[in-house]
Amino acid sequence: MLTRTPPAALPLVGLVVVFVLALTGPGPIGRGLDRFPRWREVLMTLAIAAAVAFVANDTGVAASAPAFLYAATVLAYVGLRPEAWAHPPQTPPAQSPVTTKQPQGIS
User: Fold this and answer.
1) Confidence class for position 45, pLDDT limits 50, 70, 90
2) How far, in Å, CA of 65 to CA of 73, rounded?
3) DSSP 81
4) Cβ distance 64 to 50 under 8 Å?
5) Measuring CA to CA, which residue among 22, 21, 34 is closest to residue 88?
């Protein structure tokens, strides 16, 4: 099927990207996945199950492509949540000690 219709490889490449994003989690996607850790497990399970379906099922891409749609939806959900776009609290920079001169007594 991949030799006759090369665009059918797009969901397979997308599943690899989804798996890598679930593991590394950069930016808002990572913050969303940190906030909802079960979604990370869902993404990795979907990617692995779709890869197994591609190899084990005789329909190949037709068996694994729907999982890519679900995984893309999960990525959009966790990445577009307001909590994912909230910037993590930043620690204030270390204050340098300010030295002041002590008043000297008048003689």
Assistant:
1) very high
2) 13
3) S
4) yes
5) 34
d(CA 19, CA 13): 10
In contact, 61 and 2? CB cutoff 8 Å: yes
**In contact, 47 and 20? CB cutoff 8 Å:** no
Within a 10 A sphere around the Cβ of 82, how many other Cβ atoms?
7
pTM over 0.85: no
Q: pLDDT confidence of 25, banded at 50, 70, 90?
A: confident
Residue tagged 């030295």 (tokens): 99
Q: Is residue 68's pLDDT more than 60?
A: yes
Three-state DSSP state, 64: helix
User: Is residue 12 within 8 Å of 66, Cβ to Cβ?
Assistant: no
Give the span between the Cα atoms of 33 and 43, in whole angstroms.
10
Q: Write the single-letter amino acid at 42.
A: V
